[in-house]
Design a protein that fits this description.
321 residues, alpha/beta, Rossmann fold, 3 domains, 15 helices, 7 strands, globular
Length: 321
């Protein structure tokens, strides 16, 4: 049995090796993604994002354990993709999430993979979506993706995840900083973590007010308003686990709402379109680069550096026959 078949059968060693191939963008990794694509599309992807220091990793640790234990039946297969920031100098990463979640690694139905952003914007590693595709095809029904705490730029997770959980915490600065629209607008579930802190209630009230303001700014009919998902606000304390069950229920409620209102099909269509556009951009760029005269490119670069041409003007000249 080859590596792809072993990974699809749930062999954790094969999955780890295949994820390394995918992360390194090797030919074997690309072949595997092509072969596994038809076997995927079943997993629910839960994105967890929010500012650094909000306790995301500890919360994901608790949440993965809670999601793996359904009210009845066999334990769920849950995978965690934990993205850590890369050094801008060495390109390496501490992968501290793996250290924080080491107690989950011994459970047979929970798989953890840490990866570095490698300079990717939006708080996501470039290979995170491909890794989710491998884990989906390997039979993991729930995939948690924890992103780097990069602030408002962290909206890429909303394109990957079916349910986006935004984690805030008291003491992160002024109230408005915590309630920036760019990060709140992607939330399907909003969490105030570290609820044991004395200013947690005030932070929750601020976020509730921002949610109400956002709802009022959307001009919708009563029927549209009734059909729209109402973002819940959940208070948790990841250290002692309080509120984690409420968070689990909020996530499962959003998944049920998506299935009932066609949201899963809509999100999957958007993801497929994004993936096709990305593949087209990469292919067309490589084809253009292959036929590019190196001397002409260097001259265009010098013109941009000397500010004789703007980057757009230089590109137009490069694109001319």
């Amino acid at each position: 049995m080859d590596l792809i078949e072993k990974a699809a059968a749930g062999d954790t060693l094969a999955i780890s090796r295949l994820l390394s191939e995918v992360e390194n963008d090797s030919e074997q990794g690309k072949k595997a993604l092509d072969e596994l694509y038809a076997r995927g599309g079943q997993a629910a992807i839960i994105g967890v994002t929010g500012p650094s220091g909000s306790g995301k990793s500890t919360l994901v640790n608790r949440l993965a354990l809670a999601l793996s234990c359904p009210e009845s039946g066999a334990p769920r297969q849950v995978a965690v993709i934990a993205v850590d920031p890369s050094s801008p100098f060495s390109g390496g990463a501490l992968l501290g999430d793996r250290v924080r979640m080491r107690d989950l690694g011994v459970l047979p139905n929970i798989f953890i993979r840490s990866m570095a952003t490698r300079g990717a914007l939006g708080g996501l590693a470039c290979a995170a979506e491909s890794a989710a595709q491998v884990l989906d095809a390997a039979g993991f029904g729930l995939i948690l993706v924890e992103t780097v705490g990069a602030g408002q730029s962290e909206v890429d997770i909303a394109r990957l995840a079916h349910t986006t959980v935004v984690v805030e915490a008291p003491g992160q600065g002024d109230d408005i900083q915590a309630a920036k629209a760019g990060i709140l607008e992607i939330a399907d579930v909003l969490v105030v973590n570290k609820s044991d802190k004395p200013d947690a209630a005030a932070a929750a009230r601020t976020l509730e007010a921002m949610l109400e303001i956002g709802a009022q700014m959307v001009h919708a009919s009563q029927a549209e308003e009734n059909a729209r998902w109402q973002v819940p606000l959940v208070s948790t304390c990841a250290l002692d686990g309080s509120g984690v069950e409420d968070l689990k229920q909020a996530i499962m409620a959003h998944q049920a709402w998506l299935r009932a209102h066609g949201g899963l099909e809509e999100k999957n269509r958007a993801r497929a379109e994004d993936a096709l556009k990305l593949a087209a951009r990469e292919h067309l760029f490589k084809e253009w680069q292959r036929g590019l005269d190196p001397g002409k490119y260097r001259q265009a670069l010098e013109n941009v550096l000397a500010r004789r041409l703007s980057p757009r003007q230089a590109l137009e000249r490069l694109l001319k026959p």
